[in-house]
């Protein structure tokens, strides 16, 4: 036991000596550092200097002169010369366009309307010799059937006036025809053409001779 205690005491003493030597050997080293100085800077945008504005003196009230507009020239109005009435009548041609005169009501839904007066229109291709008497071609309304009113046109409420130009032959038949004034609806124009091309006419006459003649036939499509 004594040996053990002695050995323990020696060991503790040796350790104490070693620890004391290490404590003396390690010492902290303090380094003095300078305290940083804080600097503040402000940035401002550079602005150019504005040039000095010179204020001009306003002159006193001065009269303002306006240029006088040029005088308007009066237009000279010449009076029209009176027209001399033609004493000599123009010669009538054998082929002319004439409008029918008879009043006719073939059906309540399709009406044929005629102008009050009719004037023959010279085609320029016929003989210009004067004739003593010219009778215009006229359709036979009593025997000619009225144009049929198309069902589609009646359902859609189409109405209008069609004027046809018909070339009547010497025997009273239709040689040619065309639409002079449209109703605005092709279906009504075609219905008028299909009907009138089958019509018969009283042929036009020049003197005692039958001649070909253009005649205008107006047809009205009206719903009642």
From TrEMBL:
It comes from the Bacteria. Belongs to the TonB family. GO terms for cellular component: plasma membrane. One of its GO terms (biological process) is transmembrane transport. The keyword Plastid does not apply. Residues 111-125 have a biased composition (Basic and acidic residues). This is Energy transducer TonB. Residues 134-224 form the TonB C-terminal domain. Keywords: Cell inner membrane, Cell membrane, Membrane, Protein transport, Transmembrane, Transmembrane helix, Transport. SUPFAM superfamilies: TolA/TonB C-terminal domain (SSF74653).
């Amino acid at each position: 036991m004594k040996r053990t205690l002695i050995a323990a005491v020696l060991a503790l003493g040796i350790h104490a000596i070693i620890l004391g030597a290490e404590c003396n050997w390690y010492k902290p080293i303090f380094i003095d550092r300078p305290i940083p100085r804080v600097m503040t800077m402000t940035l401002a945008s550079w602005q150019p200097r504005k040039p000095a504005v010179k204020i001009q003196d306003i002159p006193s009230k001065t009269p303002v002169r306006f240029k006088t507009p040029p005088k308007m020239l009066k237009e000279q109005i010449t009076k029209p010369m009176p027209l001399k009435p033609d004493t000599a009548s123009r010669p009538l041609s054998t082929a002319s366009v004439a409008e029918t005169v008879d009043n006719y009501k073939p059906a309540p839904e399709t009406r044929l309307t005629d102008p009050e007066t009719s004037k023959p229109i010279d085609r320029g291709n016929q003989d210009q010799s004067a004739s003593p008497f010219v009778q215009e071609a006229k359709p036979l309304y009593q025997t000619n059937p009225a144009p049929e009113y198309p069902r589609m046109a009646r359902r859609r409420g189409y109405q209008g006036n069609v004027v046809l130009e018909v070339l009547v032959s010497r025997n009273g038949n239709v040689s040619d025809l065309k639409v002079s004034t449209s109703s605005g609806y092709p279906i009504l124009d075609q219905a008028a053409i299909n009907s009138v091309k089958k019509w018969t006419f009283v042929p036009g006459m020049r003197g005692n001779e039958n001649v070909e003649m253009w005649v205008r036939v107006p047809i009205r499509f009206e719903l009642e």
